[in-house]
Amino acid sequence: MTIEQLAYSVDTFYLLMSAALVMWMAAGFSMLEAGMVRSKNTTEILVKNVLLYSIAGIAYLVIGYRLMYGTPNVETYAQQADFFFQMVFVATAMSIVSGAVAERMKLNSFLLFCLVLTAVIYPVQGSWSWGGGFLSELGFVDFAGSGIVHMAGAAAALAGVLLLGPRQGKYAEDGTSRAIPGANMPLATLGTFILWMGWFGFNGGSQLQLSGTDNANAIALVFVNTNAAAASGALGAFLLVRLKWQKADLTMILNGALAGLVAITAEPSAPTPLIACLIGLGAGVIVVGSILFLDRRGIDDPVGAISVHGVCGLYGLLLVAWTSADANILSQLLGAAAIFSWVFTASLVLWLFLKVTLGIRINASEERIGSDLTDCGVEAYPEFVSSKEN
Amino acid sequence: MTIEQLAYSVDTFYLLMSAALVMWMAAGFSMLEAGMVRSKNTTEILVKNVLLYSIAGIAYLVIGYRLMYGTPNVETYAQQADFFFQMVFVATAMSIVSGAVAERMKLNSFLLFCLVLTAVIYPVQGSWSWGGGFLSELGFVDFAGSGIVHMAGAAAALAGVLLLGPRQGKYAEDGTSRAIPGANMPLATLGTFILWMGWFGFNGGSQLQLSGTDNANAIALVFVNTNAAAASGALGAFLLVRLKWQKADLTMILNGALAGLVAITAEPSAPTPLIACLIGLGAGVIVVGSILFLDRRGIDDPVGAISVHGVCGLYGLLLVAWTSADANILSQLLGAAAIFSWVFTASLVLWLFLKVTLGIRINASEERIGSDLTDCGVEAYPEFVSSKEN
Amino acid sequence: MTIEQLAYSVDTFYLLMSAALVMWMAAGFSMLEAGMVRSKNTTEILVKNVLLYSIAGIAYLVIGYRLMYGTPNVETYAQQADFFFQMVFVATAMSIVSGAVAERMKLNSFLLFCLVLTAVIYPVQGSWSWGGGFLSELGFVDFAGSGIVHMAGAAAALAGVLLLGPRQGKYAEDGTSRAIPGANMPLATLGTFILWMGWFGFNGGSQLQLSGTDNANAIALVFVNTNAAAASGALGAFLLVRLKWQKADLTMILNGALAGLVAITAEPSAPTPLIACLIGLGAGVIVVGSILFLDRRGIDDPVGAISVHGVCGLYGLLLVAWTSADANILSQLLGAAAIFSWVFTASLVLWLFLKVTLGIRINASEERIGSDLTDCGVEAYPEFVSSKEN
Amino acid sequence: MKLIIAIIKPAKLPEVRDALQAAGCKGMTITEVKGFGQQKSHDELYRGAPHHAEFLLKTRLDIAVQSEDADRIVSAIENAARTGNTGDGKVFVLSLEHAVRIRTGETNESAI
Amino acid sequence: MKLIIAIIKPAKLPEVRDALQAAGCKGMTITEVKGFGQQKSHDELYRGAPHHAEFLLKTRLDIAVQSEDADRIVSAIENAARTGNTGDGKVFVLSLEHAVRIRTGETNESAI
Amino acid sequence: MKLIIAIIKPAKLPEVRDALQAAGCKGMTITEVKGFGQQKSHDELYRGAPHHAEFLLKTRLDIAVQSEDADRIVSAIENAARTGNTGDGKVFVLSLEHAVRIRTGETNESAI
Ligand SMILES: Nc1ncnc2c1ncn2[C@@H]1O[C@H](COP(=O)(O)OP(=O)(O)O)[C@@H](O)[C@H]1O
Ligand SMILES: Nc1ncnc2c1ncn2[C@@H]1O[C@H](COP(=O)(O)OP(=O)(O)O)[C@@H](O)[C@H]1O
Ligand SMILES: Nc1ncnc2c1ncn2[C@@H]1O[C@H](COP(=O)(O)OP(=O)(O)O)[C@@H](O)[C@H]1O
Question: Which of D7, D18, D44 is the mutation pick for testing A, counting most A CBs within 10 A?
Answer without folding.
Answer: D44
